[in-house]
Amino acid sequence: MEQIKTFLLLGSLSVLLVFIGGYLGGQGGMLIALLIAGGMNFYAYYFSDTMILKHYNAQEVDPREAPMLYRVVERLVERADIPMPKVYIIHDHIPNAFATGRNPSHAAVAITTGLLELLNEDEVEGVMAHELSHVAHRDILIATVAATIAGAVAFIANMLQFGAMFGNRNRNGNPILMIMMAILLPIAASVIQMTISRSREFMADAGAAHLTGHPEWLQNALIKLSNYNARGEVHGATPENAHMFIISPFDGKNFSFSNLFRTHPTTEQRLERLEALKEELSNVSEQNKLYDRHYV
After folding, report:
1. Taking Cα atoms as reference points, which of 247, 238, 237 lies closest to residue 205?
2. What is the largest CA-CA distance in the chain?
3. Residue 289: its pLDDT value, please?
4. What count of other Cβ atoms lies within 10 Å of the Cβ of residue 236?
5. What is the distance between the alpha carbons of residues 100 and 138, in angstroms, rounded to a whole number?
6. Sequence-distant (≥ 6) Cβ neighbours of residue 205 within 8 angstroms
7. Could you say which of 123, 125, 131, 201 is catalytic?
8. 131 flagged as catalytic
9. What does the CA dihedral 61, 44, 259, 225 come to, rounded to 10 degrees?
10. Spacing of C-alpha 44 from chain mean position
């Protein structure tokens, strides 16, 4: 369901881009915006992992330096049947973990010392399963495509203030309409982009539940992280870097309008979905036991 939702949302972004491209100057306007936004995101797609890891001063570790973490990751990649990613530790007291890399063959997972101190091994496995699900689902690629289209929409909308920049003056003659489009279109694109992000978070949670077979491991981790956030100790979190957190750093804060721009579902929504998956996996397990007793 979340996969279908993602494609529908990406389609909505594309329709939005085609609409304003046609309004301003047909395919020419749309192409210019796509080329500019695409060039920026092409660079981000291939080099963002290096930039992010360097920004956080992440240190690559081997099995001798982080035996528990390596054991967890190796166990999960074997189940997921994906290549072993590079494993990094970030010396930061704020509990966090993220995955980066353009595909499963060029992936890395990073975890902070704060998260390793806060969670037990089962909970760490739940978190790492979530991050590796992002890798398996190629969420970096999907996020880049969404960012490219949303960036193109924002670029064209920003140019509206300069009037008929693509030479179609007759159709760009209504200044009120142009101002409204310049304000509302980037907002609409951002809302769709963030909805895609939330959809992928649900998918990663579901992937983690199936990968570990224990949804409660991730549930327990999310509860601990949410309680940590509620204490107001996540300093330096901004809407721009919120997507790099395993859980929204703004959970527990009352942002009514800005909830539209959340990169993550609420913790309550994620816990509810995981609870449903727990019942589903339990039912499958019971059916398998009945089958074994009947045929063995």
Report:
1. 247
2. 78
3. 47
4. 8
5. 10
6. 130, 133, 218, 270, 273, 274
7. 131
8. yes
9. 0
10. 15
**Phi, psi dihedrals of residue 82, rounded to the nearest 5°:** -125, 160
Beta-sheet strand order (sheet of 108-112)? 59-60, 86-90, 108-112, 97-100
**Rounded CA separation 91/27 (Å):** 49
Cβ pair 150, 189 in contact under 8 A? yes
Residue 88 phi, psi (nearest 5): -125, 150
Residue appearing with tokens 């999310």: 222
- Which of 201-221 are b and which e, b meaning 16 or more Cβ less than 10 Å from the residue's Cβ? bbbbbbbbbbbbebbbbbbbb
| Model confidence at 82: pLDDT above 90 | yes
The 10s digit of each residue's pLDDT in 88-144 is: 999 999 899 999 887 899 899 999 999 999 999 999 999 999 999 999 998 877 877
Look up residue 290 and give its two tokens: 């009945």
Number of H helices, E strands in the chain: 9, 4
Which token pair is 281?
Answer: 């996996």
Residue 85: DSSP 8-state:
P
At 25-58, the pLDDT tens digits run 556 666 766 676 667 667 766 777 788 888 889 9
Per-residue pLDDT band for 234 (boundaries 50, 70, 90) equals low
- Go through 4-16 and write b for each residue having 16 or more CB atoms within 10 A of its CB, e for each that does not: ebbeebbebbeeb
Give the separation between CA 22 and CA 16, rounded to whole angstroms: 10
